[in-house]
């Protein structure tokens, strides 16, 4: 939008836009190899170097060379562009976009324009961060404690404890059905030998000896459902907004990778704040893939998910689509800006966060009511403007028909716009 006089959120029908296009001319080496044209192609979801080479009848090697990709490079991202070397003028079949390539305005919560150079870089960085987050996923979940089987742990005549196999410990975890005990961290360190390697079962799971009990301990940094996760340090205004939007982007990029860049595509099927882990820098990672299924997997029985996060179609048998995750992500978005649970008490009654916010946005004085409902301090300065944008995105995720909900690529695009506006405000404040 730097090439235009319009704001990205003030476009009107009839406005004329200047859209910067990437173009290039064949080099001498390309011309000698038979290349006469370089076609700028906008990558769509599902495109790969292989499908592009087949569509344009050129080699993958020539595409890599035209774009200075290294040998073996395979991963390309939607909504970016590549140069396609062609020996002849492109035909209409090359230049006409596919229907699955076009993002329609009906599925967007706000107008989505062509990205400026800076937004394109932010988008690529965001998607790459999501992919990297999943590839290096270090799942840290709450401490799992379970009771030993009766008479399973006994001292032998030599006074040695029985060593449990990982399989036995997992069976005990499944059968655990009593109240959870609480231990001090010092007790946990002592029981696990300060998480010594010899007590490690697998991954982050350790064997701990608590007096007469042998329990499994799993490391955890905590999840995003704690109400104090952002209150540390008392950051307010744009800084607090920046942290919350970054968390949303981390989760959205993770889901985008899961839905569009894994083969086959997967649906997490249980997105909720307690399955989102935060590190010390408040960067988010998705955890708990126990309910994950292949996209469009046909379930005879559904009802999978958590109260307040479940899409309407979860109550019916049928294919599990990525739009189930989109619905749940919309709830997480509202949690991020309201500091409220998906099901909360109001006037002594249980209320759904999603329906409560939807009702607020339908009221006559929606912005004022919303300013009172979001987390303290978020309504200052341009905070209400950001809140309205996020709420509109969230409500679009709740549409009854899954086909009408945005996909995660559109969600990432909208969140990047919000983040970009927040960064601009922060920079202007620093200059002043």
Describe the structure.
The protein has 432 residues and is an alpha+beta fold. The protein has 3 domains: 21-95, Membrane-bound Lytic Murein Transglycosylase D, Chain A; 143-219, no CATH class; 232-431, Transferase(Phosphotransferase), domain 1 (Orthogonal Bundle). It contains 13 helices and 13 strands. The chain has helices spanning 28-32, 49-56, 60-66, 92-95, 117-135, 166-175, 185-191, 237-260, 323-338, 353-361, 366-373, 383-397, 408-431, and strands spanning 37-42, 81-86, 200-202, 205-210, 213-218, 266-267, 276-278, 284-286, 293-294, 297-299, 318-320, 343-346, 349-352. A 3-stranded antiparallel sheet has the order 3-4-5, sandwiched between helices. It has a two-stranded antiparallel ribbon with strand order 1-2. A two-stranded antiparallel ribbon has the order 6-9. Strand 4 (205-210) and strand 5 (213-218) form a beta hairpin. Helix 5 crosses helix 8 (237-260) and helix 9 packs antiparallel against helix 12. The radius of gyration is 26 Å and the shape is globular. It holds the Pfam family LysM3_LYK4_5. GO terms for molecular function: ATP binding; protein kinase activity.
Indicate the topology.
Layout: H1 28-32, E1 37-42, H2 49-56, H3 60-66, E2 81-86, H4 92-95, H5 117-135, H6 166-175, H7 185-191, E3 200-202, E4 205-210, E5 213-218, H8 237-260, E6 266-267, E7 276-278, E8 284-286, E9 293-294, E10 297-299, E11 318-320, H9 323-338, E12 343-346, E13 349-352, H10 353-361, H11 366-373, H12 383-397, H13 408-431
Antiparallel strand pairs: 1-2, 3-4, 4-5, 6-9, 7-8, 10-11, 12-13
């Amino acid at each position: 939008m730097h090439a235009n006089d319009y704001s990205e959120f003030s476009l009107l029908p009839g406005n004329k836009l200047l859209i910067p296009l990437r173009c290039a001319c064949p080099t001498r080496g390309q011309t000698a190899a038979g290349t006469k044209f370089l076609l700028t192609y906008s990558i769509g979801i599902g495109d790969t170097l292989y499908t592009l080479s087949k569509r344009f009848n050129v080699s993958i090697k020539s595409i890599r060379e035209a774009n200075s990709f290294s040998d073996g490079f395979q991963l390309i991202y939607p909504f970016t562009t590549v140069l396609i070397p062609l020996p002849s003028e492109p035909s209409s079949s090359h230049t006409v976009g596919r229907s699955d390539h076009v993002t329609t305005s009906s599925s967007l919560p706000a107008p989505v324009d062509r990205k400026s150079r800076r937004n394109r870089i932010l988008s690529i960085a965001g998607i790459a961060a999501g992919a990297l987050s999943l590839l290096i996923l270090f799942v840290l979940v709450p401490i799992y404690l379970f009771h030993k089987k009766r008479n399973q742990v006994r001292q032998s005549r030599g006074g040695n404890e029985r060593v449990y196999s990982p399989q036995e410990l997992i069976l005990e975890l499944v059968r655990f059905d009593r109240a959870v005990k609480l231990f001090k961290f010092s007790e946990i360190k002592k029981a696990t030998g300060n998480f010594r390697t010899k007590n490690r079962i697998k991954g982050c799971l350790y064997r701990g000896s608590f007096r007469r009990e042998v329990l499994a301990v799993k490391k955890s940094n905590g999840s995003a459902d704690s109400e104090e996760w952002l209150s540390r340090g008392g950051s307010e205004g744009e800084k607090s907004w920046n942290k919350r939007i970054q968390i949303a982007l981390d989760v959205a990029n993770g889901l985008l990778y899961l839905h569009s860049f894994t083969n086959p595509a997967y649906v997490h099927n249980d997105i909720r704040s307690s399955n989102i882990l935060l590190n010390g820098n408040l960067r988010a990672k998705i955890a708990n893939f126990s309910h994950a299924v292949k996209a469009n997997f046909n379930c005879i029985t559904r009802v999978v998910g958590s109260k307040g996060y479940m899409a309407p179609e979860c109550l019916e048998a049928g294919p599990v689509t990525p739009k189930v995750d989109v619905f749940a992500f919309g709830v997480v978005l509202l949690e991020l800006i309201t500091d409220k649970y998906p099901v909360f008490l109001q006037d002594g009654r249980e209320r759904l966060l999603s329906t409560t916010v939807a009702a607020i946005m339908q009221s006559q004085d929606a912005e004022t009511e919303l300013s009172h409902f979001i987390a303290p301090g978020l309504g200052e300065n341009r905070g209400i403007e950001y809140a309205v944008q996020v709420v509109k995105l969230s409500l679009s995720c709740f549409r009854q028909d899954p086909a009408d909900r945005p996909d995660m690529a559109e969600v990432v695009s909208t969140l990047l716009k919000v983040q970009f506006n927040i960064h601009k405000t922060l920079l202007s404040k620093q200059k002043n």
